[in-house]
Specification:
The protein is of the alpha+beta class. Helices cover 35% and strands 23% of the residues. Strand 16 and strand 17 form a beta hairpin. The protein starts with 11 loop residues before the first helix and ends with a helix.
């Protein structure tokens, strides 16, 4: 069978031609597309290629300067080297991160985390010259260094709780750096440029720059000279009493300008995360990241603005001002003190002189004595509603409005109806209420300045460096709280308390100073702890027309407890420094015989009643801290210490032992004349087994410092004065003979 019969032969030539035609058409299309891209669309695609190489980097503006009121620069911007990385260009992230970790002293895992994205990242600033040279020499793809500005505080640790510091993005974190960040920061600029894989700008390609706008300068109300006084004397107090913390505020009471603000311990704004002591540094090494962060936050908190405390007796001027303004307290008012208040069910409140009550007092005397029962009576006569009204009107329970971050509100009752009888009583003398130091000094400023409450001012001017326009930050008057007449009465009482009352620790001969002490026992773990106190003092100068008001608050001092001993000298020293600085002349006669002419006796270990009598006999006043209602309890500490010289009538702080023990600390008898020693033992109520009345005591039992029962008997032995004289004569004779036998030079 012929299968090819009738079939046609395939046309291979036609098929080949078809294939050629298809290839030609495709080539023409491809060439046409190339011509289109190169000739007609070249500019468009060139621009897209450039866009892929472009990098946009924000130009941080030059941050404004911060000056004190005397135009001394406290914060400036300086040029630094900053390290950037472009993660998508880094070829070996492991080796690159390891190298940078070694050079920068950072953790490699942190650097690897920064290399996970695609955008340019700022890794580190303030590179040293050595670090900069090493990184540049390595020529790592995707790693570059560029100049930027950084913050520098030329005065070091000067007023860090006013200034604050910056974060890594050049924005304020604390202080006025944060609260005035928008004014200081300025406006960012932009660099838009083609960047090589190594992070360098490619020359001859498009470059676009939008200049940054400089930030404004600000001028503080802080006076550097007064701030330095506050810092110097605060440091002395801190070193002497080793408190948990302390704060100093100096203000102009007439307008609310803050002239000084210091907290201790403090940090360095140039290195706010640096440990302040070697002990702190070692402790931090054991902290987790979360614990370390919390520690930083605690260090950066300002005691003056962010923390609260019970003000104690300083608050009595709020109670008194309200009572005088409402007419419930007058010069004819009588306040009775029998030592304790027992008419509140389940509560016993006491005066610090419960063992020696003040009896009947007028208004000025009640303030001089700082008598708690008198102020309880004052608050009761004023009433819940009016007491609460004045607490609010003087600014407690809400921020003052000072331009510093995270200001605390304090703690007061929610309403007058929420105040129970015990709270009304304790609030009258500054317990059961919590305030910030800035609230306290603002309120007392209103008490003494004619009754005007102001918002504390920390910045007085904002200067636009681009236009040189000055914006004055105005004083903010809030309200009239009390009348000028009431305020005048309060100024008189404050001065009288320094001259004749329990606030004499800030007395300066020749000058009229007003003041008030505050000693509050801290509430710890649900109860008041006798050993943890807050000692405060507020002083004004000149007393008749105050231009300066100073508040010192010392939290948990060691070795002394009361505001008059711990804080009053601090306030006095600052006011004395201001007097010298401003050239104030004395306005009062100075009695040279009243300064430092009485030696403080040693009363530690005596029963409280005997210690009080010893002090009275020498002309000293006394203040018993945290008494336990036992007149025969042991005096466990005194301040100032024995041996110091103080003016007649000065106040000595006594702490009585709450156990009620009656042991007496044995004094030093060795070296004393026997007759003098017997007089001392008689005065202390200690028995002795010796009939000798002459001679110098050579031995004693029990030894000096031993705690003894008052019923125990002391034994001592003497050596006669005659024997001592003979021995001395014989010794002198031998010495003279020796001198005569010496050969001449």
């Amino acid at each position: 069978m012929n299968f090819n019969k009738g079939s046609k032969k395939p046309n291979y030539k036609k098929r080949v031609n078809s294939v050629y035609a298809i290839i030609v058409i495709m080539a023409l299309v491809f060439v046409g597309r190339l011509l289109s891209l190169q000739i007609f669309g070249g500019d468009e695609y060139k621009q897209k290629a450039l866009e892929q190489r472009k990098s946009v980097v924000e130009i941080a503006p030059t941050r404004g300067k911060i000056y004190d009121s005397n135009m001394n620069p406290l914060a400036i911007s300086v040029k630094i080297n900053t390290l950037f990385i472009l993660p998508k260009e880094i070829e070996n992230k492991q080796s690159t991160s390891a190298f940078l970790a070694e050079v920068l002293d950072k953790r490699q895992e942190d650097l690897l985390r920064l290399m996970e994205g695609d955008e340019m990242v700022r890794v580190a600033n303030k590179l040293s010259n050595e670090q900069t040279d090493k990184i540049k020499a390595a020529k790592i793809r995707g790693v570059s260094i560029a100049p930027e500005t950084s913050r520098f505080y030329p005065a070091g640790e000067f007023a860090p709780y006013v200034l604050g510091f910056l974060d890594h993005q050049n924005h304020g974190s604390y202080g006025v750096e944060r609260s005035f960040d928008s004014e200081l920061y300025g406006k960012s600029g932009l660099n838009i440029a083609s960047v090589s894989p190594f992070g360098d700008i490619i020359p001859y390609e498009d470059f676009e720059k939008h200049n940054a706008r400089e930030g404004s300068d600000i001028v503080l109300t802080i006076d550097d000279r007064i701030q330095e006084l506050a810092t110097r004397f605060a440091k002395e107090t801190y070193d002497k009493y080793r408190p948990k913390k302390l704060t100093i505020l100096v203000m102009n009471p007439k307008d609310g300008d803050v002239l000084a603000l210091e907290n201790l311990p403090k940090y360095d704004p140039n290195n706010p995360r640096k440990a302040r002591t070697s002990e702190e540094e070692n402790k931090w090494k054991e902290y987790s990241e979360e614990e370390l962060l919390q520690t930083y936050f605690n260090i950066w908190r300002s005691f003056a603005v962010n923390d609260i405390y019970e003000p104690g007796s300083v608050f009595k001027f709020i109670t008194a001002a309200a009572a005088v303004e409402e007419g419930t307290a007058t010069d004819d008012s009588v306040y009775h003190c029998n030592g304790i208040v027992t008419d509140i069910p389940g509560v016993v409140l006491k005066c610090y002189r419960w063992y020696d009550p003040h009896g009947e007092q007028n208004l000025v005397e009640a303030m001089d004595h700082s008598c708690n029962p008198a102020f309880i009576q004052m608050a009761r006569e004023l009433g819940h509603e009016k007491m609460y009204k004045y607490i609010r009107d003087f600014g407690f329970g809400k921020p003052t409005g000072i331009r510093l971050p995270a200001e605390a509100e304090g703690l007061i009752p929610e309403a007058a109806s929420a105040i129970n009888l015990p709270q009304l009583a304790t609030m009258s003398y500054g317990h059961g209420i919590a305030v910030t130091p800035i609230q306290m000094i603002s309120a007392i400023s209103a008490v003494v300045n004619g009754g005007k409450l102001y918002t504390p001012r920390i910045v007085k001017e904002v200067i636009d460096v681009n236009t040189q326009e000055k914006l004055i930050v105005p004083h903010q008057f809030k309200r009239q709280v009390i009348s000028e007449k009431t305020s005048e009465k309060m100024r008189y009482m404050m001065e009288h308390g320094v001259e004749h009352g329990t606030a004499d620790g800030a007395k300066i001969p020749g000058y009229k100073i007003g003041g008030k002490t505050g000693t509050s026992v801290k509430f710890v773990d649900g109860k008041y702890e006798n050993e943890t106190t807050v000692a405060s003092y507020i002083g004004i100068f000149p007393a008749e027309d105050p231009e300066f008001i100073v508040l010192a608050v010392v939290d948990e001092p060691h070795g002394a407890s009361s505001g008059n001993v711990v804080s009053a000298p601090l306030v006095r020293n600052i006011i004395k420094g201001i007097i010298d600085l401003k050239g104030y002349l004395p306005t009062e006669p100075i009695d040279e015989h009243t300064d430092g002419n009485v030696e403080i006796p040693y009363v530690v270990g005596m029963p409280l009643s005997r210690a009080v009598q010893v002090l009275k006999d020498l002309g000293f006043q006394h203040f018993v801290v945290n008494p336990n209602m036992n007149k025969e309890s042991l005096v466990s500490s005194q301040a100032p210490e024995a041996g110091e010289l103080l003016p007649y009538g000065s106040i000595i702080d006594l702490m009585s032992d709450e156990t009620g023990m009656q042991w007496i600390q044995m004094p030093k008898l060795v070296g004393m004349d026997a007759s003098e020693a017997k007089q001392l033992l008689d005065r202390l109520g200690i028995k002795y087994a010796s009939n000798e009345t002459e001679g110098v005591i050579q031995t004693q039992s029990p030894l000096e410092g031993t705690l003894v029962d008052p019923e125990s008997t002391v034994e001592f032995s003497t050596v006669s004065n005659t024997d001592d004289d003979n021995s001395s004569t014989e010794s002198n004779s031998i010495e003279n003979d020796t001198q005569e036998d010496k050969p001449e030079d």
